[in-house]
Amino acid sequence: MIMIKFLILVLLTVTFFIPGAIFASEMVFVPSNGAVAKGELIKINIYVMPGDDRINATQGKIIFPKDLLAVANVSYGNSILSFWPETPAQKEQGVIAFAGVSPGGYASSDRGLLFSVIFRALQEGNATLAIQDALVLKDDGAGSATQLRLGSGTISITKPIAKEESPKSFALSEELNATNDHELPESFMPLIGKDSNIFAGKYFLVFVATDKQSGIDHYEVQESKRRSPDDSKWVRAESPYELADQTLSSFIFVKALDKAQNVRLETLLPFYPQKFYQSVAFWVIIVLILLAFFFLRWKSKKY
Q1: What does the alpha-carbon distance between residue 45 and residue 39 come to, in Å, rounded to a whole number?
Q2: How far apart are alpha carbons 133 and 135 in whole angstroms?
Q3: Which pick of 13, 63, 160, 266 has the fewest CB atoms within 10 Å?
Q4: 2-161: CATH class
Q5: Are strands 191-194 and 203-206 parallel, antiparallel or unpaired?
Q6: Residue 291, SS3?
């Protein structure tokens, strides 16, 4: 995507290392050292600590041993990043790739959550987690890169001790069990943006929803001149989403569906509503009136 190309361009045109410089930001695993029994689940969070910088974009890859760990779920509903040119997901075995942006920027002395991964332990051993090809950009108007320190992680996988699943693993299993989720995703606010580096400067839609139980499964978008959506015209979408109606005269409907298929619907009103004479219904009525007029006139002349 264009945003990824932009990030790569920045990656190739900025200086990443200055001898003797202090690292301004850090990307880490929490916990950095975890333990889990074979066959059970463990949750690892990936955080960024901006240091003294205000940041607005990041990308990278999480590398893990595919023979020891399997990805059970990736969630980013509570992330400090609000839209994703590349949503965190396993792109190939042993690799989770991501690229996200926070348009308003993020600055804090505390760490900010990027996303979380639930792993299932496949075999006994020590699984090493690493971050590669990582980049954190400053919110300085130029997209310059921060000096970045990358953390590492280890998950020790032991023999199963108890016959029953451990409480921590059971809680994660419940988190993944969509059948227990009867709550709608939380309300969210889709936003319209425009940037010369995204979709060739065209208007686009940004959205992110949170679901604290089963997690967000996917989004669907519909643009319409009508005030209510048509069930047959939904388009599966990811944020950012290029708008078809660049005049911004349509109603925009966005559905967030969680893994239990609970649906939260949000609506954006047209920025530039159609004039009454621009609608098809208006001209249909005009044509019907004219036909009725000429019919009555013809009938009166006939008799």
Answers
A1: 20
A2: 7
A3: 13
A4: mainly beta
A5: antiparallel
A6: helix
